[in-house]
Model the fold of this input.
Amino acid sequence: MLAVVCGHYHDSETLIDEMDDDGDGIADRKVYQMLADYQDGPEGGQGYMRLLQFDTTANKMYVKTYSPYLNEYNFYKPEEYPGKDEFTLDMDLKPAIK
Done:
């Protein structure tokens, strides 16, 4: 598992956990957890959603928050909450054979 995207808990947070798959005390991988739920905002959240773009060459995931209803980015004010709606995560996106 690489990432978990969830909602239904009002807020927007990102957490990165390191997982030790083989029990040797050394982290083997990271799991990225993103909570994005805007339905507590005006008009039930005004259609805000997370847009995820994966760049497999650069091993990055670009995250933006967008409302097609308002045609606007960022639910939170960037100057008050920097990095809450728009950010980049470095992650290993190379194919793995298990």
